[in-house]
Amino acid sequence: MAYIMVDIESDGPIPGDYSMISFGAVLVNDALDKTFYGRIKPISDKYIPEALKVSGHTREECMGFDDAETVMRNFAHWIAEVCKKDRPVFISDNNGFDWMFICWYFHHFTGSNPFGFSSQNLGSLYKGVVKDTFQTFKHLRKTTHTHHPVDDAKGNAEALLTIKKEYGVKMKL
User: Fold this and answer.
1) What is the pTM of this model?
2) Which one of 108, 139, 147, 148 is the catalytic residue?
3) Does an H or E element contain 81, and which?
4) Does 147 participate in catalysis according to the annotation?
5) Among 11, 38, 55, 153, whose CB has the most other CB atoms within 10 angstroms?
6) Is residue 173 part of a domain?
7) 134 domain residue, yes or no
8) What is the domain count for the chain?
9) Is residue 132 part of a domain?
10) Which segments constitute the 3'-5' exoribonuclease Rv2179c-like domain (predicted)?
11) For residue range 92-131, what is the model confidence (pLDDT) as tens digits?
12) Domain contains 172
């Protein structure tokens, strides 16, 4: 299996009515040297200014981003390249949010999702490893959480590698 840490930024709470503005992905390996960054032109006229502000982009900037189909096809190609013979596994800090956008965009714009039908949650993994549902993994990040999705995915991937090493979690990377 090939774990791919993903982080997305959006201009609202759900795909379709609102838009995924950008996303980043990192192949989880010791080097964390394989990344993908996509910026997507809004697919809806609706947006929540406060949500968009988190991404650091203006609505005007977003209107100049690439179309969703092109970005999602490029992402699918990147996944195929970095995974080769391994099955890609989607993992994120908040998979309930990040997964719904990535899955919806893949199915809507390309007809299929290379990750299949499931995702993994980094926070839940950590809570299980430390046996405490009130704990967070965020102190294990090395890269600062900036809301640039590649930075955030990389920080989360660093945390996953630390969990694997320090807690003896068995993972094929």
Assistant:
1) 0.96
2) 147
3) helix 68-83
4) yes
5) 153
6) no
7) yes
8) 1
9) yes
10) 3-163
11) 999 999 999 999 999 999 999 999 999 999 999 999 999 9
12) no
